[in-house]
Amino acid sequence: MFVRGLKRKCFDGEEDIEGTLAGIKAIPSYNLQRQSLLDMSLVKLQLCHMLVEPNLCRSVLIANTVRQIQEEMTQDGTWQMINTQSTGQASLDRLVSTDILCRSSREQAEGKHIPGYSTFNKDFEGDQTEDSSETMSTASSVQAPRNLQSNMWEMENPQENKGNFQKSLDQIFETLENKSPNSVEDLFSEVDNSYYDLDTMLTGMMNNTKMGHCDGLETFSSPATTTSNSNCKSDLNELDHIVEILVES
Amino acid sequence: ADIISTVEFNHTGELLATGDKGGRVVIFQREQESKNQPHRRGEYNVYSTFQSHEPEFDYLKSLEIEEKINKIRWLPQQNAAYFLLSTNDKTVKLWKVSERDKRPEGYNLKDEDGRLRDPSMITVLRVPVLRPMDLMVEATPRRVFANAHTYHINSISVNSDYETYMSADDLRINLWNFEITNQSFNIVDIKPANMEELTEVITAAEFHPHHCNTFVYSSSKGTIRLCDMRASALCDRHAKFFEEPEDPSNRSFFSEIISSISDVKFSHSGRYIMTRDYLTVKVWDLNMENRPIETYQVHDYLRSKLCSLYENDCIFDKFECVWNGSDSVIMTGSYNNFFRMFDRHTKRDVTLEASRESSKPRAVLKPRKVCVGGKRRKDEISVDSLDFSKKILHTAWHPSENIIAVAATNNLYIFQDKVN
């Protein structure tokens, strides 16, 4: 946890990110930063499920943030498919329940080509599913510019990822200073298979472990491709799962 | 010493209570001002210390219930004893704090050690007399109000009828009678039928200072609802709804989080309410629901740091706010052990620091300034040097004098107006 000063920057310092959304979409790193915020939020929700008694207010606020990002990604992703869909930021009032949101996105996503899975770590390349048509070679240094494809995660066979599960979690949680890798393994040792999906989605954070995900994003110089709606589909499944966790707790 | 989690003056300002993370309550009492030293204001000394709550374990959920005292509220004094309510996440307790400075001596049937005397040996009758003894302050739990909250209690508020009080958790508010501990009335319930649809929680609640039928509660979406208990038993429909329209130019993914209200307080007059969200303090007129009448920036330089503050969880810190006795000045805390005061009439504000290094006893506090960019002057501190682990969440203002109590983690600071 950061206690002294705020050396790490994420959205910080980039005022246009916090400006009107319509103008931002032209900036290549916006999608990356949004994805990073989504990843961070999902990790936070996972963590607070593990703690003794989760703070309900905090969980609700994080879940709402995740929902907002999902909404926006849905609109981005289906923007070209559905011409009649309004482009404005959907107000949360119109969001009846995440179930409905998920359903409509999934239906729209059917039959669409699923872009390749991008990886930032050589260890993962061999574990990708049959569906991924493109894999990117990675540079060893996080500083090197990359062709960043949208992160995408399938409902993969958990066994394939199991080998990397502990390792990836360790790398993810190195960035969270208040957790030691060992304690994280203990936390997740009894987790059921559905958590593995979260892991693969979070591999986007992997490469940033050395610098922290906020800093790492700023080094990407190549433009990101548009987020695919399958990105939202997987993320929305994750949101369902997170909300289930909230409900059960 | 443990981390202080709540600070509260009683209605006369004679007593100051603090609750801490270890479930302890420490009460300070103001020295009587002596005629010999009229210039020396009364200082606060420890009056009583007791363990209010103990850690518990909820076996059903396999969760620990923290003993941390979330709030203390005093009852107005009605006799020689003092009464206060203290609460942790689940249980509210009514404590009686009373003094004993005399004891009876000269019983007939027992001797000074308490041993019974042989009645056949008693030849003379005497009347017991009260003799002075060293002052003893004892705290006894008089009522325990338990098992009424599924979620964490965030607020308690004593009603102006002095017979009832309310306790609020994340989703429900209950009304209690002080005499009845096995029953409470649910007056607000915002729990959705399907918890997956939950998007908003109650963050604070308070009774109106004069109208015993009126109370307000704030939410995590930045709204305040005023309810009238005469309208119906379950106050799910508000009488007034206070919400400021969102500024579209400031919209970000963090907009909702920073709009979440962490504290709501009626003014002493009962005409206004003050709310605290992450970056601002707002004053609302009860007669105008569509926007606040005043907005004060507490630490706007953090607006560009919201992502980092989200990452390290500081964005979820719950700051409280207080009015002074005349409702002319409001005060709230910030980071780096800074706290801020805003004069509503002159529109001037000041930043002060509560730390050992920057304040010696009886020295006047020096105003502090945060440098937001460009050249940093000698006494200024830059935003990046702020210590976010030193947060002032809890402060209190004496009901009639300019005396403030500031809780800085595990230290309590009491500041007074400079005496000329």
Protein described:
The complex is a heterodimer of chains A (249) and B (420). Chain A is an all-alpha fold and 249 residues long. Chain A has a domain at 27-69. Helices cover 50% and strands 0% of the residues of chain A. Chain B has a four-stranded antiparallel beta sheet, with no helix packed on it. A four-stranded antiparallel beta sheet of chain B has the order 7-8-9-10, with no helix packed on it. A four-stranded antiparallel beta sheet of chain B has the order 11-12-13-14, with no helix packed on it. Chain B has two domains: 1-33 and 41-54 and 80-100 and 131-145, Thrombin, subunit H (Beta Barrel), CATH 2.40.10; 55-79 and 146-414, YVTN repeat-like/Quinoprotein amine dehydrogenase (Methylamine Dehydrogenase, Chain H). Chain B is mainly β and 420 residues long. The model of chain B has no long low-confidence stretch (mean pLDDT 93). Chain B contains two helices and 31 strands. Chain B is globular, with a radius of gyration of 24 Å. Chain B has helices at 255-259, 306-311; strands at 4-9, 15-20, 24-30, 44-51, 56-58, 63-65, 71-74, 82-87, 92-105, 129-145, 153-158, 164-169, 172-177, 185-189, 202-207, 214-219, 224-228, 240-242, 263-266, 272-276, 280-285, 294-297, 321-323, 329-333, 338-343, 349-353, 370-371, 381-382, 394-397, 403-408, 411-416. Classes of the chains: A mainly alpha (249), B mainly beta (420). At the A-B interface, helix 2, helix 3 and helix 10 of A face strand 6 and helix 2 of B. Chain B: Keywords: Repeat, WD repeat. Chain B: One of its GO terms (molecular function) is protein phosphatase regulator activity. Chain B: It comes from Centropus unirufus. Chain B: One of its GO terms (cellular component) is protein phosphatase type 2A complex. Chain B: Belongs to the phosphatase 2A regulatory subunit B family. Chain A: Residues 113-147 are annotated as: Disordered.
